Amino acid sequence: MTFGHPLLLLTLFLIPAAFLAYRIAERRRMKYAIRYTNLEVLASVARGGTIRRHAPFALFLAALAALCFAVARPQATTLVPQERATVILVIDVSRSMDAKDVKPTRLLAAEAAVRTFLDHAPKRLRVGLIAFAGIPSVVTPPTRDHELVRDGLIDIASYGGFGGTAIGDAVAAAVQLGQEAVSGNNLAALELPSKAAHGLVSILFLSDGAQTRGDLLPLEGAQRAKAAGIPVYTVALGTPNGTLDFGGGFGNGFGGGFGGPRRVPPDPDTLRAIARATGGQFVEARSSKTLDRAYAKLGSKLGRKPQKTEVTYAFLAGAAGLLVAAGLLSGAWAPRFP
């Protein structure tokens, strides 16, 4: 928290001064206490004890502290939606995404996480969707119509017709799509200066395996994102012991036509390196709950920018409430003589 007028925080010295004045008044009151011979009445008056006697003044001090903070104009930093912000969602739809180590399957868990992301994202955030296996394909261009993105998830598995996992190419395709969203057309995207998309475009990239094909290596794709000023937030989905039965199929992109169960572990090291190189963040998701929480958090973060907001009203409201409470307690607990 910051303050518009920090020097006015010196008014907080009023609190120890008020406490000292209260203690002096208490001692003087005890010094000049009157004699009263009816012990039963005195006992009924003193029944409240120390807490009741001092509680109203404690609330008054708290109210005074809130007022001192209020005059200093406190400001809280919050995340607010950013105009023209774009997030490109990239999802691996290769054959290994059918593995069931993440329930119900890796792909279905990823689809559910994207829906969670859209639930938490700003309404005016432009969201694009890319699916990739051996080659990347644009499922939905960047749009503020989030229902179109949801509809694109329905047939996203059909984009995995080319076997393999081309991570580097997919990152590069997401960078180009993000630049097109900033420039408004394809030709201008190729001529954008370095860092032109900084702060306007982010990439949320999910994969469950290591690169097996493609023209660009993963870090070559990351360098394109870094040059454009686009952070890549990566998610490694799956468990190290995840397996998939390929059933004797051919052309699956895993280097052979032999069937039977095969381990399909994710590659967290590569995805972590991409995030680190581009200024993004890395998440390792070994369950659908972890994945869903990560996408909910990123949905509340991406497409927003920090902004200072004055919260003086909150301190004034708190001070008013404390003063009312102090007054009510003082009246309710005040000693009364018969």
Detailed description of the structure:
The structure is a single chain. By secondary structure, the protein is of the alpha/beta class. The protein folds into two domains: 2-77 and 309-333, no CATH class; 83-302, 3-Layer(aba) Sandwich (Rossmann fold), CATH 3.40.50.410. It contains eleven helices and eleven strands. The protein has helices spanning 14-31, 39-46, 49-71, 106-120, 146-152, 167-183, 186-190, 218-228, 268-278, 288-301, 312-333; strands at residues 2-3, 74-81, 86-92, 126-132, 136-143, 201-207, 232-237, 243-245, 261-263, 282-285, 304-310. Helix 1 packs antiparallel against helix 3, helix 3 runs antiparallel to helix 11 and helix 4 packs parallel to helix 10. The protein is elongated. It starts with a strand and ends in a 5-residue tail after the last helix.
Which key phrases capture this entry?
three-stranded antiparallel β-sheet, Rossmann fold, alpha/beta, 11 helices, 338 residues, six-stranded mixed β-sheet
Summarize the structure.
The chain folds into two domains: 2-77 and 309-333, no CATH class; 83-302, Rossmann fold (3-Layer(aba) Sandwich). 45% of the residues lie in helices and 18% in strands. The protein has helices at residues 14-31, 39-46, 49-71, 106-120, 146-152, 167-183, 186-190, 218-228, 268-278, 288-301, 312-333, and strands spanning 2-3, 74-81, 86-92, 126-132, 136-143, 201-207, 232-237, 243-245, 261-263, 282-285, 304-310.
